[in-house]
Specification:
The structure is a homodimer. By secondary structure, chain A is mainly alpha-helical. Chain A contains 22 helices and 6 strands. In chain A, strands 1-2-3 form a 3-stranded mixed beta sheet. The first copy, chain A, has a 3-stranded mixed beta sheet with strand order 4-5-6. Chains A, B: Homodimer.
Chain lengths: ~450, ~450
């Protein structure tokens, strides 16, 4: 936290600092510091914690105290909390809720955690189209205390609970008191089905710059609302997952310092072992060229240089395409446009590296006479292979996310290490084949 | 967009579809489709576009039409738009604004684009503490039409414009009409200085689950508010930048399909060339072991396998740490905890790969007699180097982001390719040194 901020929040230090430091404390210290707070401070802290932390804290408290904390949570946050605790303790926590809330929470638990139904809050402010603005404000005054904090819209439902429109509290306040709600409400509104995936939902929030989106069932009955504050968490979570996949790890659903080392190794070993097994093909590939290497050891010196260039350019291309897909900038049907761009980029980048590589070999030869009589041919081999390998890496790296998505996998699984491994094997073949063509009769 | 959604928004097809397809259209088509919309539809579309697209569209319109579109924008959005257009055209657009707005926009342009001052909207709803709830609602009715859509809070200012508290419209509606604003307002509120960086700001939004944060100057005068919808864009932008850096590219500030190929090559060539030059050290390193390779060509076969394992494990470690830092889960002072974890993980992962690698060599030897008389010693060399290289890659990969942050650079610059390149050179040294120790007297 920057120093400017600290001076600004200095007057209310302890609960905020506790929240900041929460992930660094051991569970016993958490409980102790939590108990040291006044009730209102403790409530603020509890509500600011994520569902996982709320669950851990609740389980650390003695059972008689739990009920009053569960009551603080809106039904969607209750459901999130319950999904974070072990199955055999769920019933007990559910039994602490009043009947209405328990029914709502059970309803939410039936949805997948990452679709609109699982994210929505089933409590929202409802008004009737035929009410006057003044009547609706009086009516709102009665509903307002029951709905969660982030809500700023009233939804206009007909007697069958079908969604007819929406009006913000701000607009109600600005309207003349005797207008009808139906006159001030907005009727062309974005609504989503319960099954919509959270990633599509978050794109919708950002495309239309919305504060809340109502969720409706197939017959248009309103089921709840998803608010922007839930979506910020989604955007962050999805980016974290993508970044971890790009780095070649299975997504780690917990903060780095809190996951156990055994789990950490498990999450990483799978991909690493798979990549390693893929990479053993390089030993096989090089085995085929063992005779060439024996005759011209100088060739072996440039193997890491040539194949890593393919890996690096492929990893650039793949991360750019993965992110562009996640942001909706590139779709499956754009693959041909992407190929054309990447062929040009790959050739451009390949020639730049070939130029540098050739210069490096000629310079070293002039200075140290390192590379023998056929140094010019060796330089040509390296330069020509670089163009081929970089072009190949770029095209493979950019196309792999398309292939993965087409097959129904997450394009982000096309990690930098995955692409590098794929390109290493083919890079070797490109390099040694080029060598055979250029050097036959001279070194080979 | 999934089919469920399309059926839901089918009744208002054209402007939404246009928005979806915007990035795929050529500029002429954009202008033409935009002009085909009714005025209210066109306004919705214009307001949904990002600042860059708004700017491009505006510049495509004939000058006399521009004023009425500029007027639609809140001052912070105006400032964003102006930052997206070439310098020499800015004055002309600014001159289209009325005096008050122009002053506000000029004020905002003085802030850096990515601090709180640059993100904030200088228009907000203000009330006085001594007003009754009823008076404040009447007062709000007059202010409401002037402030932007995402605003749901009234800020309580004293006569010197210092921020005393905040009250949501919802809470005002729920209060009894003759209570004082000072009785219902919340006084312990989070506020930030104008200079706060957007990344810290976004963490604050998510830690405290806020909808809006007021920005104050050094004497506590309120300057504006930052709202959650601006922060969603920030979170997305920062993740995109991090992902591009992790992939080894300079951040690309435009959608993938819209940046020119020349700019694309420029953004990628810098890092790629730097990595390539670093990687030429592998040729130097291998040069030192040329004699060993000539005597035991079998050693060269495993070079790509061994060094890529270091690169892959390093790239896992670095992306995990970069993301944990960006989320605030890991701070500079945690470096020692991270080292300890990564040493254990690195050893664990190293032994797993060593086991697989040894098995692979022994199996191939049994099946094809590929690796000569000293195959067992070769297998031992590969296995022992794998433990060393993976451990080394993991530790280097996890520490590099700390080092970069400590030196004032962005930890995300510790890209997967960067770590792989660093580890390749040292990996070669580990491998050939191990080989000398294990094989001396036998093969070497």
């Amino acid at each position: 936290m920057p120093p400017d901020l600290e001076s600004n929040v200095a007057e209310r230090l302890s609960p905020e600092d506790l929240l900041e430091a929460w992930h660094l404390l051991i569970p016993e210290d958490r409980l102790e510091s939590f108990r040291a707070l006044s009730r209102p401070e403790a409530e603020d802290l509890f509500l600011s914690l994520g569902a996982r932390d709320q669950g851990e804290l609740l389980r650390a408290l003695p059972p008689p105290e739990r009920r009053s904390w569960m009551r603080l949570l809106a039904p969607d946050d209750c459901a999130d909390l319950i999904q974070e605790i072990p199955h055999h303790e769920r019933e007990e926590l559910l039994s602490l809720l009043d009947d209405t809330t328990r029914k709502e929470v059970n309803g939410l638990l039936a949805y997948a955690e990452d679709d609109a139904g699982g994210l929505m809050n089933p409590r929202f402010v409802r008004v009737r189209p035929e009410m006057t603005v003044d009547e609706s404000i009086t009516y709102l005054r009665r509903q307002a205390p029951e709905v969660a904090g982030a809500m700023h819209y009233a939804y206009v439902l007909d007697p069958e609970q079908r969604l007819r429109g929406v009006v913000s509290f701000r607009k109600l306040l600005a309207a003349t008191p005797d207008q009808r709600v139906s006159e001030v409400m907005q009727t062309d509104l974005i609504k989503v089905p319960e099954k919509m995936d959270q990633e599509d939902l978050s794109r919708l929030f950002s495309t239309y710059r919305l504060g809340a989106i109502p969720v409706v069932d197939e017959s248009g009955h309103m089921k709840g609302i998803v608010t922007l504050d839930d979506i910020v968490d989604v955007v962050r979570e999805e980016a974290t997952e993508d970044i971890q996949k790009i780095g070649g790890t299975a997504p780690i659903d917990a903060p780095y310092l809190r996951i156990s080392i055994v789990d950490m190794i498990k999450k990483r070993a799978g991909w690493l072992a798979a990549l390693f097994i893929g990479e053993t093909l390089t030993a096989t590939a090089m085995g085929y060229f063992e005779a060439e290497i024996a005759r011209a050891v100088v060739l072996a010196l440039f193997v890491p240089l040539v194949i890593s260039s393919g890996g690096n350019s492929g990893s650039q291309a793949t991360t750019l395409v993965i992110r562009a897909m996640a942001l909706g900038e590139v779709r499956l049907r754009d693959w041909w446009r992407v190929v054309r761009r990447e062929v040009v980029s790959g050739l451009g980048l390949g020639f730049i590296l070939a130029f540098i590589g050739m210069g490096r070999i000629l310079l070293w030869q002039a200075l140290f006479h390192t590379y023998g009589a056929h140094y010019a041919l060796v330089a040509l081999t390296v330069a020509a292979s670089l163009v081929g390998v970089v072009l190949w890496g770029t095209v493979v790296g950019s196309m792999l996310p398309f292939l993965l998505r087409r097959l129904g996998f997450d394009p982000a699984s096309s990690s930098a290490p995955f692409v590098a491994t794929l390109v290493d094997v083919t890079g070797l073949i490109i390099y040694f084949t080029t060598a055979k063509l250029v050097l036959s009769g001279a070194l080979l």
